[in-house]
Protein 1
Amino acid sequence: MEISDWKKLPFGYKKTNYNVRCYYRNGEWGALELSSSEYVPIHIAATSLHYGQEAFEGMKAYMGKDGKIRVFRWQDNAARLKSSAEGIRMAVVPESLFRDAVFTAIRMNREFIPPHGSGASLYIRPLLIGTGPEVGVKPSGEYLFMVFVTPVGPYFKEGMKPVEMMICRDCDRAAPLGTGNIKVGGNYAASLRAIEAAHQAGYSNVVFLDAREKKYIDECGPANFFGIRENTYITPDSPSILPSITNKSLIRIAEDMGLKTERRKVPVEELELFEEAGACGTAAVISPIKKIADPVMNREYVIGDGNPGKITLRLYEKLTGIQTGDEPDPYGWIEFVE
Ligand SMILES: *Cc1c(COP(=O)(O)O)cnc(C)c1O
C-alpha cells in the first residue's frame, strides 16, 4: 500500500496473516502456537462467556525512519495484564510469555506495519480469557492467552481536533472498590449505555464521575483525563481509574518540560479553571477537549479557544516522537523488534 492509503486506513480491524495463542491447562502454560484463523473455538460453558473472565491490553508498534520496529513500554502492559488477571482470578501470563507472544505476533505480520510518516501504526491486542466450563460461579481452571495485531490509521486524519464531551450523572463505569482499576471487558460493557447517550446528544464521549459522591472527575470514556492550569499537569486520583501508561508517560515528560504535576481529586467545578484539557490513551495518545457539558446541572465548561493548547501539543509531539523514533528515548521506553 502507498503511504496515502495507510493514512486513510480507519481505526478498526483488518485481517492479518497470523495471531498467536497459548493455552493454560493443568496448572501450566503450554507452547506458543501460531494460528491463521480469526476464530476461537470455545466451550459453551466457558467462564469468559458467562461470568466475564476476560482481560485485555492495547499497545502499538511503530516503524521508525531507520526501518526499525519499535514497541512502547511493553513491560507496563505485561504488568497491568498481570494485575487484571489477579483482579478477576485468572491465571497470570508470565512476563516472558507476554513478550514472546507480542513480539512473535509483530514479526509474523511485518508487512502490515504501516510505514514511518504515515501516522498509522500496528495496534496490538493481547487478551486473556477463561475457557474452562463452569456453571457455578468460580474461576476457570483453563485459560487462553492470545495476541492479534491489526494496522490502524491515524486517529485524527486531519490533525488533532479538540472534542466535546458530556458528563454522565445517571450511570457509572465502575465502583470505587470494583474493577475500574483493571482492564477487563466488563468495564467496557458497563460504559456502553453512557457512551451511546453522549453520542445521541452530539458529544464525542462521556466523562464519568466518581461513583460514590459524583463530585470528582474519574475518566473520559476509555481514556484518562488531564487538565493544565498555571503550568501544572493535573490528573485525577481515584480507585476506579484504569492506570493509563500514556498518562504515566505524559506525566514524566511534563516534569522534564518543567511543568509541575499533580495526581489528586479533581472536582467538576475545577474544569472552569483549566486552560487546556485532554483525554489520553494508546489509541489517540491525546484527544484535546474543548468543552465539557454537564446537562443535569445545566452547566457547560469551555476549555481554551477551540484549538489544541500549546502544552498539549508539546506533550503530544514529544511522546509520539519517542514512539516513532523521531525523538530520542531518554527513558528506555522503546524496545526494537529484531
Ligand atoms: C486502556 C484504558 C486507558 C488507557 O490506557 P493506556 O495504557 O494509556 O492505553 C484508559 N482508561 C481505560 C478505562 C482503559 O481501559
Protein 2
Amino acid sequence: MSSRLAIAGGTPVVTRDDYQNWPIITDDDRRLVNEVLDSGIVAGGTAPQVSALEREWAAYIGTQHCLTTVSGTSALHMALAAVGVKPGDEVITSAFTFLASASCALHQNAVPVFVDIDPRTYCMDPSQLEAAITEHTKAVIPVHIQGLSADLDPILAIAKQHGLHVIEDACQAHGATYKGRRVGSFGDVGTFSLNNFKNLCGGEGGLFTTDSEEYLNKGVLIRCFGDEVDEVSHRRVYNASILGYMYRNQELPAALARAQLLHLDENNAVRIANADYLSAELAKIPGVIPPYCPPDCRHVYFMYNVRFDAPAAGEDGDRRRFRVAVEKALYCEGVLVGQWQTMPVPAQDLFQSQLGYGGSRHPWALNEAKGVRYNYDPAQFPVAQMLCDTYTVVHGVHAPNGKELMDKILSAFHKVFSDLGTALDHADDEIYPGADGKLYGAG
Ligand SMILES: *Cc1c(COP(=O)(O)O)cnc(C)c1O
C-alpha cells in the first residue's frame, strides 16, 4: 500500500464494502412484521403492536407510561402541548442540537431560547442555564446529544427552583444512562425518535415517556385530534375537547421497533466497544480529540464525534480549514466522515430572519409587542461554534461493524496525520465528505 495520501492520488485504506449498514434486520423483524400482516390490523392508537411497544418501552426506560407517535419531532411538540406551554412562553434548549429540539417550541407558538454547550460533553452547559431564564420561561429541553446524557442534576434543580417543566430530548440516546438510570425517565416527559438513523429504529416513529397520568391523558388526546373517547362504549365521539393533531403511529413501524428493541442492548454494547477502542487509539494522535464520557454516564454513541485541534497537531492555521482538510483527506482514504450540524441551531436562517407562521414574524411578534427582543447572534454560542468549526462524525461505529473496520479507520487517521501538509494543500478540492444514505437504511 502506497503511503501517498489518496487525496493526492494514492490508494485508499478503506473501501465502502468494509462498512456494514444500519439497521440490522433479523428474523425477529420478519417474525413481528409478519404478525402484523397475518393479523390484518395495520393501524390504531390501541392496536396490538403499538400497545405492546408502549408497554415494553415504558418498562425498558423505567417510566409508568409511554405513547408511540409518528416521529420524535411530534413527541416533542406533544410534550410541550401536554405540559401546557402557551403562546408567548419561552422554551430553553441547547445551541448544538437538531432543529426539532427548538422548532417544537415554535409549533406551540412559543419562543426558543438557546444555551451554549459544555466544551467536553457538547450538551447544554448547566452553568449558563440560569442566565437564560426570564419571566416568560416555561420549559427547558435538555438534549442528550449523540448518545450522551446531558448533566441532568443541575438542570433539574434549576428547573425546580424556577418552576419550569423539563422535557428530555432523548431522540439520540436510547439506552443511555445518567447516574445508573436510563434517560427519558428524569423529566416531566421524555421523547425519543425511531427514525432509520437512530439506535432504535422503526423506519419512522417516536416515543413519549412519562410518569404523569395527567401528561399521559393529555398526550392521548393531543395525539389524536383532541378527540374524546366515550368511557363506556370506548367509541370516539368526534367531539374535540382540546386542540390536537394527528400524531398516531401505526402497526408496521411499531412491530419493527419491538423487534429491534430485542437487540438494543447488544447493539449498544457493540457501539460502545467500537467507540472505546477508537477513542483509546485516536487519543494517541496529537490533534485528534475523541468524545468524552463522564464517569457517571453511559454513552451509547448514536454518533461518534471527533474534534481536530490544529495547534496540537503542529498546524497554526485556521481551525475550520484544518478540519476541512483532514476531513477531506480521510474521506478520500475511504473513511465515511462528515459533519452533521454545520452551525449552531440559532445561526440557521429561520432564527436569523425570525419569520415563522405564513412568513410572518409570529410567534416572536407576540412578545415583541410587550417590548421583548430576541437576539440569536451566533457570537453568543462560542463553544457550539467552536465545535461546528472543528468536529466531524466518524460513521460506522454501529453493529455489526467491529474491530476490523475500526483498525482500518485508525490506519487511515495515522496515514493522514503523517502527511498533514499534503492534506492542507488539498483543503479546497471539490470533495464532499459524508455517509451515503444506504449506510443508514435510507433510499
Ligand atoms: C432525530 C432527532 C429528533 C427528531 O426525530 P424525528 O423522528 O426525525 O422527528 C429530535 N431531536 C433530536 C436531537 C434528534 O436527533
